[in-house]
Amino acid sequence: MWQGALICIAALLLQAEAFYLPGVAPRDYKQGEEVKVKVVQLSSTKTQLPYEYYLLDFCKPADDPSVQAENLGEVLQGHRILLSPYKMAMRTNASEQIACRKKYTAEQLKEFKKFIAEEYRVNMICDNLPLAVKVEDPEGVTQLKYEKGYALGMKGAKMAADQDEPLYINNHLRFKILYHNEDDESLGSRIVGFEVEPFSIKHEYEGTWDDKSPPKLKTWVGEDANARRPEFLSADQEEVIWTYDVHWVESSIKWASRWDTYLYMADDQIHWFSILNSLMIVLFLAGLVAMIIMRTLHNDFRRYEQMEASEEEAQEETGWKLVHGDVFRPPMAAGWLSVLVGTGVQVFLSTIILLIFALLGFLSPANRGALLSAMCFLFVFMGIFGGYTASRLYKMFKLTSWKKNTINTAVLFPATLFVIFFILNLIIWGERSSGAVPFGTLFALLCMWFGISVPLCFLGSYFGFRAKAIEHPVRTNQIPRQVPQQAWYMQPAVSVLIGGILPFGAVFVELFFILSSLWLHQVYYIFGFLFIVFMILIITCAEITIVMCYFQLCSEDYHWWWRSYLTSGSCALYLFLYSIFYYVTRLELTRVTSGILFFGYMFIISIAFFVFTGAIGFYSCFFFVRKIYGSVKVD
Question: Which of 15, 96, 395, 510 is the S-S candidate for 528 at Cβ 3.0 to 4.6 Å?
């Protein structure tokens, strides 16, 4: 679920096939060589709370199932990689294998029932491939689509209205492992698929049970399905026998393409509709901007240079020129504006670089946790640009408390996110979830923040204050001009809310897929589409902010600094409102804490979205205003 915090905002260029520039090196297995299967976590879309696999009393391997090496991204996502009890050997089929027999107490059975009722799934990996279950349509025709992990159990039909819903546990697993032989078979085989088919079987045997030499079981998957009884969890349950089969199937899929099936998206037409919808909005706004710049402004410049019109006509037709003496007057709370713009630049640069790396294949899903780890490191290293941007604007506003400005830039946004994140982490920790970030990792994040990001922010501020101050094309009057009464649609609140609709409208279709990957545990890897949508978002934010700024200046309202930031940044409000709609229509969370976590992480994403889209709008207006007022001569 932690992939949530992230992401907040990412995007893409032509659809990416399975193209791996770096990633995990292929491993060749000899005939009969041991293949280790590892368990990752128990996860559910109903709770959004992952749990460690051995929190429930499953069969354990003979070796110590200690936690495997993890990176920062895996820890933040709640992954705890452990060894499983399932033994496999390359290209060696095994049937009727017994993992163990477990006798459970009433309390342990209650835990299993709770997890089955909340639709938890068991996630495993083999040779770095996630365990998947093939999804079939209602007609029974298998589609090229998989779900990650298998269901821990299933719900049965009630026999009577006053009875509880019966719950069955999937205690038998039929593993299907696909392998591919390279041209030189002496090198061995490579694993290219890891599938499972779960079953619930009430195993029967004669005599007494001996763990060292277990008796032969009477019932298996291969027998008549009607003769099998499912393993029903009841209050007087005595034991559960865990079993599995292993079937190796040769495949034509090559190792470089083994993730294609997992990443397959059957909704390409919807993605292209999203792109076309966004492009129509961009073209519409581009037409407005072109009309303003190529026609209206051109006519304004021509009339002004000819000086043929009367003063009243000039005031009526070129109202934006009448505020030339106030348009560059520093706004209220100019220091905080510079801080927010600097932070927005930091988030924007880290996001665009992250997308470029993902587009090139450096952050493939084979590198578990790489996306989240890269996001954290990029953000802290981009602190130098955030500090430089904030200091340049701060100096332009002729403010002097540069140390205070730098500290605010380095601390305000990360501290806000860290406090929210820490509170949510305490909630997860209270639920005993493996998604809770250890305090050691939190301390490491603080060290990255204060050890890398803050010093780089001060370094960027140093260069920013050393640089020559930005000079405006026109002088600012000593006495502020009175702003005339504005029409209702040009009121700040109205124009800001209107300005955020179109940028959000350009990306909301793709946003559905992003939220599904975050909260429905789907794999999202179409970075080509995402990069295109991201660029469209940038263009749309810039265009709508320029249009609204021009209308504002024509109304002789020169308070454009904050409004330019808020106009494009307001699309974050629509993002959060859309998350509420998504929560109501798509999610079926069963716990109150799950809802708190959802809105907490979506609030973090919305804040990040606000600061970087606001920075885009601010700089678009800044360059636009400097351009138009630098193109006329003012006495």
Answer: 15
Q: Structure tokens of 273?
A: 């509709």
User: For residues 116 and 169, what is the distance between their CA atoms, to the nearest angstrom?
Assistant: 8
On whether the CB atoms of residues 541 and 617 are closer than 8 A, the answer is yes
Cα–Cα distances (Å) from 332 to 388, 395, 563, in that order, read: 21, 15, 12
592, 566, 615: which is closest to 47 by C-alpha?
A: 592
In the sheet that holds 142-148, the strands lie side by side as: 94-102, 240-250, 172-181, 189-199, 132-136, 142-148
Q: CA torsion, points 473, 475, 477, 481, in degrees to nearest 10? A: -10
User: Distance between CA atoms of 358 and 345, rounded to whole angstroms?
Assistant: 20
Side chain identity at residue 63, one-letter code: D
Q: Is 180 helix (H, G, I), strand (E, B) or coil?
A: strand
- DSSP three-state, residue 43: strand
For the chain, the distance separating the N- and C-terminal CA atoms, rounded to the nearest angstrom, is 60
* Closest to 461 in 3D by CA, of 535, 385, 525, 521: 385
**pLDDT tens digits along 524-576:** 777 877 888 898 899 889 988 998 898 898 888 889 999 999 999 999 999 99
Listed in order, strand segments (DSSP E) in 284-352 are: none
For 307, left (φ over 0), alpha (ψ -120 to 50), or beta?
Answer: left
Residue type for 593, please? T
pLDDT, tens digit (0-9, with 9 covering 90-100), for 171-227? 999 999 999 987 666 678 999 999 999 998 888 888 888 878 888 887 766 655 555
From 84, 73, 147, 155, select the one nearest 114 (Cα to Cα).
155
Closest CA to 194 of 128, 99, 97: 128
Q: Cα 558 to the chain's mean position, in Å?
A: 38
Burial 328-365 (b: 16+ CB within 10 A, else e): bbeeeebbebbbbbbbbbbbbbbbbebbebbbebbbbb
**Residue 532 CB neighbours (<10 A):** 21
Q: Where are the alpha helices (DSSP H) in 520-560?
A: 527-554
Confidence of residue 479 (pLDDT cuts 50, 70, 90): confident
